[in-house]
Amino acid sequence: MQAFEYASPTTLKEALALLGERWGEADVLAGGTDLLSLMKDYVHTPKRVVNIKGIAELGGIRKTAAGLRIGATVTLDELLSNPTVRTEYPSLWAAAEGVTSPQIRNMGTVGGDLCQRPRCWYFRLGYGLLAQKDGRSLVVNGENKYHAIFGGGPAYFVSASSLGPALVALGARIKLASASGTRELSAAEFFVIPKSDSEREIALRPNEILTEVLVPPAAGVRNATYEVRHKEALDWPLATASVALRMKGTTVESARVVMGHVAPIPWQAKEAEQFLAGKAVTEEVAEQAGKAAVAGAKPLSQNAYKVRLAQVAVKRALLAAARGKA
Amino acid sequence: MPEPNYSWPPREKRRVIGKRVSRIDGPAKASGRGKYGSDIHQPGLLFAALLTCPHAHARVRSVDTKEAQALKGVTAVEVISGPGTEIQWAGTEVAAVAAVTEEIARDAVRRIKVDYEILPHAVKEDDLKAAGARSKPAGEVLVGDPDDAFKKADVISEGEYGIPVLQHCCLESHGQVVMWKGDSVEYWPSTQNVSGIGGDLARSLEVPAANVHVHQDHMGGGFGSKFSADRWGVVAAKLSRASGGRPVKLFLDRRTELEIAGGRPSGFARIKLGARKDGAILAWESHSWGTSGVGGGGVAATQLPYVFTNIPNRRVNHTGVITHTGPARAWRAPNHPQASFLTCCAIEDLAARLNLDPLEVFDKNFQYTARPEVYRAQLRKAAELIEWKKLWHPRGQSGPGPVKRGLGIGVATWGGLGHASDCRTTIHPDGSVEVELGSQDLGTGTRTVIAMVAAETLGLQVNQIQVKIGDNRYPPSGGSGGSTTVGGVSASTRKSTMNALQKLFEAVAPGLGVPPDQLEAVDGKIQVKGNPAKSLTWKAACQKLGVKPIVEMGQNNPKNPMGLISQGVGGIQIADVSVDTETGVVKLNRLVAVQDCGLIINPKTAESQVYGACIMAICGALFEERIMCQQTGRFLNADMEFYKLAGIDDIGEIIVHLDITPEHDARGVIGLGEPPVIPGIAAIANAVANAIGVRVPRVPLTPDRVLAALEGRRA
Do A138 and B646 touch (CB under 8 A)? Predict the structure, then answer.
């Protein structure tokens, strides 16, 4: 790990003043479960590390008329312990529970989950975000069993965020602050597919801090997450699906279907969403929706199986949501 | 007085041996008081880091260490692979730096400039056709007339199976703390070879072996990969010398640990069996291949067929494939898990082809093994424990629903003869007892076993024995490989403590008015045989020694085991799995392990060995594989993230049955570290085939492979 300057401000204002205008100048530290490994691997070599865990205003979960406000430094464990999350946002709860390491749930934060870097092994070995060598994609020509089946390149990593798909499905908004003010993006807008190695996979700028997540009220929205995992113990899911169904009686009025670990961003399955509108969620409908969700998948040489897994994840998430209460 | 009768006491007379004794170093380990090499923190400790080569095949043109040397806090820099060195795998050690902090050492190695001439590399071996000139055929083993036998066979069953390279993944990585003290070297390695590793280091440093002092109280796993001093041991010592003798700590980081410090050879094979309708195998033909790195290697032709070694007609070929990958090291039962997997999968596929219960087919073919009756009895027991009759169904007939359940069988054989071991027992006049051996406890319970044997012999409690191991100044004991430790140390401890007891008898016999051979040590007393009223307490007896303690040696000689130890065990495991056929995810429900093992000194630690071995097998069956990238030459998952190991929820229920019988007990002590790791992969792979109706040809049984098999694709 390269030597760095460490700052531990107690206000957001102080923290923002410590950030740089370019990536590489400063990194924000919360739980550190990703940042420390990035630094130990010299993938990130920040000159300054800004610890935001001491900033009180970035913590806490609050239920308001506008929905649930989740502070950036709320840990995954706090999220899991919150009764509102458990009862009203089971999709979010299940996504957090899917991080099957108590250590990471105790340290890792909501903001960190959204801002963590991809786990692509080429990226982590120092081949850059797009994992290219001599202008050719190492992923396309190499070991890609855990890589993207949507997006079409040049980025083939998968978004590592556990909460991202659930937040996109729930229509959450993400608040970012910089020294010059704040801005709000939808969770869907927050995740971006980079076109070059110098870009990032999220809309956050180097001088910004993710301060909070706002999840709209879940009244009348049945939601669920299903993860296909190789291991029960700590492991990245192979494919996930988060769904949010606005119900009218027993039929779906509108649906959000978002798949995780299949694309550089949480991947919204618009075809499945359209298919579901106006239908009751039966086994057959869920099966068809799963098929519709992956109709546009373009697997690489070793990850065709993920198409199947994503399809099953969508089906099972839909059935779980339909069984749940609105 | 004649030489004592060293035989183990008869079963009914044992007071300590055979009891479930908790390991005596458990509290020290659980509390953190027990120190491992990586815990050693001598004053002035320096930290070392390695610069490793990122290329799989290259020649070093130059190494420039100036910038590293100039960094504040750096005390020494050593070049390991100088100009002209041909690097043959990524991760090879090129240079090392010692510094006052680990961070400075790591930053410093990044300042070393190495100019490489990049050479072509090849890192894959799973496709033999693609290996071309890298193939090294090992010659054919031909027995009987396989061509004729295949013609006469009622059925021919063919299959292709594969098991990749996997890694040792020692929890404590390889490394050491080492310190020069004048002409001598203080050395705290993590090793399986306390008595031998000092000499290994001494040779490389060109100092007398007598000058290297090895210390190791505890170590965090070796599995066959920790016998020699290795380049990192030698360079750590050189860095210490160059830093004025300050202690240097150099433990491999996780990536390097996986890349260069472990690795089990892969095993792939095409296998053809010819059999009669009743399942009796007439002919075996196999062509296997695999890699151990740049040497080719893999599972030797002589290791197939496994266990069923007397199949009358056999043609066996093997091809080693050269790869630019980290070299293999002995991995817990070297090559046996691969050979068991290849053989047992072929036999279960034959059973499915014949529409026979594999239980019958294994039973029928046990005639071709060295110990048919042992295997038959074990298979019956394992089948009973897994409820085979109730749960087994013909392949693929698991019933409706996406989750399918299945059972499968694996077999094992192993030697386990105790190694050469010397033990010194000291009985002090105050009654305290020291038992010293230059052995090591890999976490298997060796300390506890030594204490139990000494306590049994001397008529004392386990906590009255001070076991001293982990120092090469104690009498030499073999390295812990090949499941040789328990036999070695138990026999030498038995002899040494018995010799010492003999001396004690001689000292107290006159006072008790009987010849020494009329005395026995029981329940903390020395008493006249058949007359317990005539006795001395242990303490009172020892006081008769005056000022001079008794010091007696005992030696195990594997060539003359004297009935204390022997070798040759079998084992059967049966797995019960559930497979989600929509996702390809395999869950192990239960794994039954039936294991014969000779005389068991401590059933508790013996069972622990079997549990641990089963967990390793489950990891190999479901999760573990080295993933090499041909484009970069790198081992992509050299971490604990994508190099997957089971967690508690992934393990299922393990049911251990130690096959303890008077006949096995009479054979004496046999090592148990390796055999139970062998059959699990075969059993689980066969259970998955039974569940889903098709063979998943390669392990680990990952969702992609399972789905591909279900869809008739190659993963």
Answer: no
- pLDDT band at B654, cuts 50/70/90? very high
Residue A325 pLDDT grade (very low, low, confident, very high; cuts 50, 70, 90):
low
Banded model confidence at residue B301, pLDDT cuts 50, 70, 90: confident
Looking at the partner chain, which of B582, B631, B636 has a beta carbon nearest the beta carbon of A121?
B636
Residue from A277, A286, A281, A288 nearest A254 by CA: A277
pLDDT digits (tens, 9 = 90+) for A20-37: 999 999 999 999 999 999
Residues of A in contact with B715 (CB under 8 A): 305
**Partners of residue B103 in chain A, C-beta under 8 Å:** 1, 3
Quote the minimal CA–CA distance from B227 to chain A in Å. Answer: 29
| Nearest residue of B to residue A306, measured between CA atoms | B704
Report yes or no: A38 at the B interface, CB cutoff 8 Å. Answer: no
Q: Tens of pLDDT along B18-33? A: 999 999 999 999 999 9
* Secondary structure (DSSP) of B324-369: SSPPP---SSTTHHHHHHHHHHHHHHHHHHTT--HHHHHHHHGGGS
Question: Does residue B69 come out as left (phi exceeding 0), alpha (psi in the -120 to 50 range) or beta?
Answer: alpha
Q: Smallest Cβ distance to B702: which of A142, A230, A308?
A: A230
Residue B595 confidence (pLDDT) above 90: yes
Whole-number Å distance between alpha carbons of A270 and A230: 27
10 Å CB burial of residue B231 (0-12, 13-18, 19+) is: middle
Task: Using an 8 Å CB-CB cutoff, list chain A residues near B579.
Answer: none
CB B627 within 8 A of CB B637: yes
- Measured between beta carbons, the chain A residues lying within 8 angstroms of B648 are 233
Tell me the helices (H) and strands (E) count for chain A, helix number first. Answer: 14, 14
- Put simply, the answer to whether A146 touches B642 (Cβ < 8 Å) is yes
Tell me the CA end-to-end span of chain B in Å, nearest whole number.
71
Q: Extract the tokens encoding B97.
A: 């730096």
Could you tell me if A142 and A300 are in contact, meaning their C-beta atoms sit under 8 angstroms apart? no
| Chain B partners within 8 Å of A3 (Cβ) | 103, 107
Residue of chain A minimizing CA distance to B618: A231
The minimum CA-CA distance between A312 and chain B, rounded to whole Å, is 7
What percentage of chain A's residues is helix, strand, coil (to nearest 5)? Answer: 30, 25, 45
Tell me what the pLDDT averaged over chain B comes to: 97
Residues in chain B within 8 Å Cβ distance of A123: none
Average pLDDT over residues B84-100: 98
Chain B interface includes A17 (CB < 8 A): no
Q: Chain A window 67-96: which residues touch B at a Cβ cutoff of 8 Å?
A: none
- pLDDT above 90 covers what percent of chain B? 97
Count A/B contacts: CB-CB distance under 8 Å. Answer: 81
Output Rg (C-alpha) for chain B, integer angstroms: 28
> How is residue A290 written in tokens?
């799963």
Over residues B562-587, the pLDDT tens digits come to: 999 999 999 999 999 999 999 999 99
CA separation for the pair B181, B544 (Å, rounded):
42
- Please, which pLDDT band fits residue B597 given cuts at 50, 70 and 90? confident
Confidence (pLDDT) at B535: 96
Q: Which of A138, A233, A238 sits opposite B703 (nearest CB)?
A: A238
Q: Please state the length of chain A.
A: 326
Average pLDDT, chain A: 97
Rounded Cα–Cα distance for residues B99 and B50 (Å)? 12
Whether chain B has a CB inside 8 Å of the CB on A42: the answer is yes
Q: Is B66 exposed, middle or buried (0-12, 13-18, 19+ CB in 10 A)?
A: exposed
| Contact in structure between B39 and B233 (CB atoms under 8 Å) | no
Select the residue from B111, B642, B651, B699 to test the A interface by mutation, using most A Cβ atoms within 10 A: B642
